[in-house]
Amino acid sequence: MTAFAAITSRRSVRGFTDEAVPEATVRDILEAAARAPSGTNMQPWLVTVVTGAAKQRISDAVLAARKAGESHEAEFKYYPDKMPEPYIGRRRKVGWDLYGLVGIAKGDVEKMTVQHNRNFTFFDAPVGLFFTIDKALEIGSWLDYGMFIENVMTAAREAGLETCPQVAWAQYHKIIRRELGVPETQTVVCGMALGHEDVSEPANALRTERAPLEDWARFLSD
Asked: Where do the domains of the chain lie, and which CATH numbers do they carry?
């Protein structure tokens, strides 16, 4: 697979088979991703990989907290309090496109909750990853981290695998610390599902749009 093919075929898959992914493959993906650039080669990424009983344990703990109605918040703001256009329009479109595929009508809170809860089983993927960063680091290292995470997803495509990056996990950092031993000195950035796509899952028919190049790029020659 070419780099262009890996990048353009990457998408957020929301349904996986139970086909195992060898640990050696996960290691190869992470080692390749670590070639991402970072300021003065600081390499700020820290990753916890969960499979088997460990993955089940963290899923059970978060789902139990959600069922109990516990209040949890991430340690950082991902979205602004008031989102302007064109961003709010894009967000709404992808949300309703997804809900349309999985049969969720507007206002059906119960079905929305069920769908959202699937984040916390990693959409049934056999491998879950948690990405954390040292709290002593600043925004530059977070930018570096984004390039590393993109490398993980691109390398996964080359390996014939799919992914879904999941910021939804960040709000449950306290549970992640308790269950997986992540220290207080690290911020939970996001989770990620990794595995083989379940092609029978309706949500996986989603193909998100991208704004045309002319909307966001300028080419100056004078």
From this structure: 3-78+121-206 (3.40.109.10)
